[in-house]
UniProtKB/TrEMBL annotation:
Region (Disordered): 550-575
A single cellular component GO annotation: membrane
Record gene name: MTMR12
Role summary: Acts as an adapter for the myotubularin-related phosphatases. Regulates phosphatase MTM1 protein stability and possibly its intracellular location. By stabilizing MTM1 protein levels, required for skeletal muscle maintenance but not for myogenesis.
PROSITE patterns found in the cross-reference section: PPASE_MYOTUBULARIN
Name under which the protein is recorded: Myotubularin-related protein 12
Assembly description: Heterodimer with lipid phosphatase MTM1. Heterodimer with lipid phosphatase MTMR2.
Similarity comment: family membership: Belongs to the protein-tyrosine phosphatase family. Non-receptor class myotubularin subfamily.
One GO term of the biological process aspect: phosphatidylinositol dephosphorylation
Keywords from the named record: Cytoplasm, Sarcoplasmic reticulum
Pfam families, sorted: 3-PAP, Myotub-related
Compositionally biased intervals (Polar residues): 562-572
Myotubularin phosphatase domain boundaries: 205-643
Length: 747
């Protein structure tokens, strides 16, 4: 990661202190300043990007056990990113094995990707914010993609230190206005160069035609209809201009409470059951208004619940499932496990890895989300019931659970184009507040919740367990999560379609003004060259026409730092429950009333779930049919590529899943070559060949964190942990506490 162009070394008679120690004397730096200036790398700016402040004579360094290595260069801050321009940039550019992003370099941090900024004062680390009276000698930046940057400012001029530190703090921490985001600067400057990719066939769901096509594809057009009653956002600014509702529902019903209390269609199953979502009605204290709302909901419910032909199961996600506060608290603890400052800290925390992982509850939250999605799938697939998801605004957990259900039940959403269309339909058009949940404007930390990242992590569990079922790779999911913080794509920078259309000028009454054309994240050519894009496509994907009955299952390599809580099972009931008083249950939920218990027995639900779950896993997997994840115990794993890719000590050199993938690709290339020779021998018409996927280097040089890491610095694991080893006791005690000690040095 950072092993080139270093200055300094491990010389000296005394052991260095835990803080940064430079082995380059200040006079040496100033003596060579002229020479270094001539080698300085040019700062590459995007259209509309402006340089705000910079500092020279900055050392970017990484601590490696007892040796400190630093790279000399400039630290700059623009209105798009923080960038470090080191002397070894040319060496890095010549490394063809790097998985390069065309917008963001290895030493670049977009302003929206900055999580926390720390300063080191007299070897004490403090969080930096607001106006500073004293400026640090060292700057530490923690990123939302879990990178950690250390910059030594000891030899930087005092005025430059003040400018760069104040500038970084202000432009990353201060509240912003939406129109001041770089998204608009870039769109304005690149107005003539932002044409849509003609190869991108993602369905955007911004036209009535898109919704009609989806209805026809899922055979839902017999019971549901696409409506344009919200064109121009006349009814509700929270909803998209077009959406789908049950056929019996009138436009007057949709308009009555500004779209609240209306069952909105998400997806239809092959057996006719459907997945719906609904937002709650506004809370009212007046008895007359409450009675009116109750009568309205009663009428709405009768249009979708007509037993025995149509039965609706309601799932209240606001009160009977996870809270957004739980998700945020869990992730805040979880991410700290991967924000590692140095090798010593890695091994210090290694002895308590499992307890820290367990206490974060992040993997357990993933398991609960997958379990809830399986329960809903069971209702639709096995019991042929419609499922209605309830949430206050139907824009957080509704997006998460409905998307997971569709990935499990519909193989179309396991293709790349299908998955991108799903994100557009359920998240972008579904009104998920990306602007608030990602805290892009820095206006309220209370609104920041990684709901979309939780969804990607849940999908990764499925990809990891069933690789042949997905056309995309885990690398695709990783770079998609990174794209949350790149402010040139409109996909993840608005709270609703209305907010986007209003701010790009589509709702403007001025005929002369031309609306801004914003890029979508689905145009991957903006970020990656064609060769790099091949790593986003899964070469082991089983295409439907070529389904092989003997398709082997994907090989799994368990990283030792991957474990979760075991699945705790509740007692099952011998009786099968019925849905009682479902209408009153729905009305109470939507009127904001608290419910003391679930209408349906949890034991009955557990009984149905367990039977459905065990039955599916006992049969061979149809990769183009229903797909369920394993959710018990250690089957829920840490998404190592995303969370551990910047930690060299966590990589498996020449091993991991990527090594297996490399061997499989070599075999595929050999088979393809033989097929071409056979075709030539028989003089047959040459069929169009798909682009052969390839890994750019020999598998022996790859690490398990490829393509984000190759052979990086590797520090030897200490014989015993660097702290707390005396408390472990003798060998017998060590054996008893093996769940607290992970031997990563042997990987």
């Amino acid at each position: 990661m950072l092993g080139k162009g270093v200055v300094g070394g491990g010389g000296g008679t005394k052991a260095p202190k835990p803080s940064f120690v430079s082995y380059v004397r200040p006079e040496e730096i100033h003596t060579n300043e002229k020479e270094v200036t001539e080698k300085e790398v040019t700062l590459h700016l995007l259209p509309g990007e402006q340089l705000l402040c910079e500092a020279s004579t900055v050392l970017k360094y990484v601590q490696e056990d007892s040796c400190q290595h630093g790279v000399y260069g400039r630290l700059v801050c623009t209105d798009f990113k923080i960038a470090f321009l080191g002397d070894d940039e040319s060496a890095l550019d010549n490394d063809e094995t790097q998985f390069k992003n065309k917008l963001i370099g290895e030493n670049d941090i977009t302003l929206h990707c900055v999580d926390q900024i720390y300063g080191v004062f007299d070897e004490k680390r403090k969080t930096l914010f607001g106006q500073l009276k004293k400026y640090p000698e060292r700057l530490i930046i923690h990123c939302k993609d879990l990178r950690v940057f250390h910059f030594c400012l000891r030899y930087t001029k005092e005025e430059e230190v003040k400018r760069i530190v104040s500038g970084i703090i202000h432009h990353t921490q201060a509240p912003k206005l939406l129109k001041r985001l770089f998204l608009f600067s870039y769109a304005t400057a690149a107005q003539n160069n932002t044409a849509a990719d003609p190869k991108n066939h993602t369905v955007m769901f911004d036209t009535l035609k898109d919704w009609c096509w989806e209805l026809e594809r899922t055979k839902g057009n017999m019971k549901y209809k696409a409506v344009s009653v919200n064109e121009g956002y006349k009814v509700c600014e929270r909803l998209p201009a077009y959406f789908v509702v049950p056929t019996p529902l009138s436009e007057e019903d949709v308009q009555r409470f500004q779209g609240h209390g209306i069952p909105i269609w998400c997806w239809s199953c092959h057996n006719g059951s459907a997945l719906l979502k609904m937002s709650a009605l506004p809370r009212e204290q007046d008895d007359g208004i409450l009675q009116t709302q109750k009568s309205f909901l009663d009428g709405i419910y009768k249009t979708i619940h007509r037993p025995p032909y149509e039965i609706v199961k309601t799932e209240d996600l606001s009160s009977n499932f996870l809270s957004l506060q739980e998700i945020q608290a869990a992730y805040s603890k979880f991410k700290q496990l991967f924000l590692i400052d140095n090798s010593a800290e890695f091994w210090d925390t290694d002895i308590k890895w499992f307890s820290l992982l367990e206490s974060s509850s992040w993997l357990d939250i993933i398991r609960r989300c997958l379990k809830k999605a399986i329960e809903i799938t069971e209702c639709m697939e096995a019991q042929n019931m419609n499922v209605l998801l309830l949430e206050e605004n139907a824009s957080d957990l509704c997006c998460l659970i409905s998307s997971l259900v569709q990935v499990m039940m519909d193989p179309h959403y396991r293709t790349r184009i299908g998955f991108q269309s799903l994100v557009q339909k359920e998240w972008v058009m579904g009104g998920h507040c990306f602007l608030d949940r990602c805290n892009h404007l820095r206006q309220s930390d209370k609104e920041e919740v990684p709901v979309f990242l939780l969804f990607l992590d849940c999908v990764w569990q499925l990809v990891h367990q069933h690789p042949p079922a997905f056309e995309f790779t885990e690398t695709y999911l990783t770079v998609l999560s990174d794209s949350l913080y790149i402010p040139i794509f409109s996909t993840f920078f608005f709270n609703s379609p209305h907010q986007k259309d209003t701010n790009v000028g589509r709702e403007s009454q001025d005929i002369q003004s031309k609306p801004l054309s914003l890029l979508t994240v689905w145009d991957w050519s903006v970020q990656f060259e064609p060769k790099a894009q091949t790593l986003l496509k899964n070469p082991l994907y089983v295409e439907k026409p070529k389904l092989d009955k003997g398709q082997r299952k994907g090989t799994r390599f368990k990283h030792q730092r991957q474990l979760s809580l075991p699945l705790t099972q509740s007692k099952s009931s011998p009786k099968r429950g019925f849905f009682r008083e479902e209408t009153d249950h729905l009305i109470k939920n939507l009127l904001g009333k608290r419910i003391s218990k679930l209408i349906n027995s949890s034991d009955d639900l557990q009984d149905n779930f367990r039977e459905f779950y065990d039955s599916w896993h006992s049969k061979p997997t149809d990769y183009h049919g229903l797909l369920l994840p394993h959710i018990e115990g250690p089957e829920i794993k840490v998404w190592a590529q995303r969370y551990m890719r910047w930690i060299p000590e966590a990589q498996i050199l020449g091993g991991g899943r990527v090594a297996t993938m490399s061997k499989l690709l070599e075999m595929m290339e050999e088979v393809q070559s033989l097929q071409e020779k056979i075709e030539e021998r028989h003089h047959s018409q040459e069929a169009p060949q798909a682009e052969a996927p390839c890994l750019p280097v020999n598998s022996a040089r790859l690490s398990s964190l490829f393509p984000f890491a190759l052979l990086q610095r590797h520090s030897s694991k200490p014989v015993l942990p660097t702290s707390g080893w005396k408390a472990l006791g003798d060998e017998e005690d060590l054996a008893k506490r093996e769940d607290e000690f992970v031997d990563l040095g042997d990987l």
